[in-house]
Specification:
Elements lengths: L5 H9 L6 H16 L13 H15 L2 H7 L3 H16 L3 H18 L12 H25 L25 E3 L6 E3 H20 L7 H17 L10 H4 L5 H18 L8 H4 L3 H15 L2 H8 L5 H6 L1
Antiparallel strand pairs: 1-2
Keywords: Membrane, Nucleus, Transmembrane, Transmembrane helix
GO molecular function, one term: DNA-binding transcription factor activity
Pfam families: Fungal_trans (PF04082)
């Protein structure tokens, strides 16, 4: 995700001894995320792994200690980037309470800076304006995903956003994931954003009563959107082929990418409905285990689905 521009961040990094708390927190946040990323040949730095993981947690906590000050007193885009980076980190760690609080701070600061408005950047250099737009779309995508997972209302409304969406073919290649042989590529940034819009629509659908007027039509339309989203992914990066074609350092992000997609499918198709045939075949203990798993992975939205959801949609449910 192109949250930071490499050249700009390099300036922050090499001039850090003369910079503010914001700059130091940016370095700490990026260091924490970097340690948690897959290192080729080393595997994922898990919570139980080596001193590296402890270092990641320590860096994140130090950056977190100034998060409130960044949100309340800072007036620059770097503070937004730090808050979003920390929200990413804690989302990866499964700490959705901290992630939710951080993304809310980032949204409030982005509103103050009017990152969603093209007029706020009309007198800025083209590169600066483009970076502002990218930061906003990374924030937008993460906020929609977090609101879906935590069942909290989204803080971002599409009506007030007038900046252009990320390019499908960025000239600088930011947000692009390449296959091992570099013959195929996936615009990970844009596809993640498009998926977050589907999740946002699903959040709204789950908030209204099934069977109400327009519910089935809206669900069908959203299902078609999700199907088209998947069809637009290059064949080399689709589920059956991604492991054999993706570079090792990209696999963790692609796993999370498809995790969101699969659970959107499961949720949309009412897979965890107590009226589903597979659920009816389970013992009481098995049903409780399945429901517990659904709640942990999908979030508290699963509670309503598990108690009130209609039987799975016949054709799509069979695919699940």
């Amino acid at each position: 995700m192109p949250l930071f521009q490499e050249k700009v961040f390099d300036k922050v990094l090499f001039a850090s001894y003369n910079h503010s708390t914001t700059a130091w927190s940016a370095i700490l946040a990026i260091s924490a995320i970097g340690i948690r990323m897959t290192i080729p040949g080393k595997g994922l730095a898990a919570a139980s792994d080596l001193p590296q993981s402890a270092n990641a947690d320590q860096y994140a906590c130090k950056a977190l200690s100034v998060a409130f000050d960044l949100a309340s007193t800072s007036g620059n885009i770097l503070a937004v980037q730090v808050l979003v980076a920390l929200a990413m980190f804690f989302t990866c760690m499964g700490n959705m309470e901290k992630a939710s609080a951080l993304i809310a701070m980032a949204v409030n600061l982005a509103h103050r800076l009017q990152l969603y408005s093209k007029h706020s950047a009309q007198y800025m250099q083209k590169e600066v304006a483009e970076q502002r737009h990218r930061v906003f779309w990374v924030l937008f995508s993460l906020e929609k995903t977090i609101s879906y997972q935590t069942t909290r209302p989204s803080m971002l409304a599409g009506a007030e956003i007038d900046i252009p969406p990320p390019s499908n073919h960025p000239l600088d290649g930011n947000g692009i994931v390449w296959s091992r042989d570099r013959r195929s590529s996936l615009n990970y940034f844009r596809k993640t954003l498009d998926l977050s819009l589907v999740l946002s629509e699903l959040s709204h659908i789950h908030s209204i009563a099934s069977g109400s007027e327009g519910w089935a039509t809206r669900l069908s339309r959203t299902r078609t959107t999700l199907e088209n989203w998947y069809k637009s992914i290059p064949l080399e990066f689709q589920l059956d082929n991604v492991l054999s074609n993706a570079r090792e350092e990209d696999r963790m992000q692609l796993t999370k990418f498809y995790h969101a997609y699969i659970f959107a499918l499961l949720s949309m198709h009412c897979f965890f409905s107590p009226k589903a045939k597979w659920m009816l075949r389970l013992s009481q203990h098995g049903r409780e285990a399945a429901q517990s798993y659904a709640t942990e992975t999908i979030g508290f939205r699963a509670v309503r689905c598990l108690s009130q959801c209609e039987p799975p949609l016949l054709k799509p449910g069979a695919c699940c």
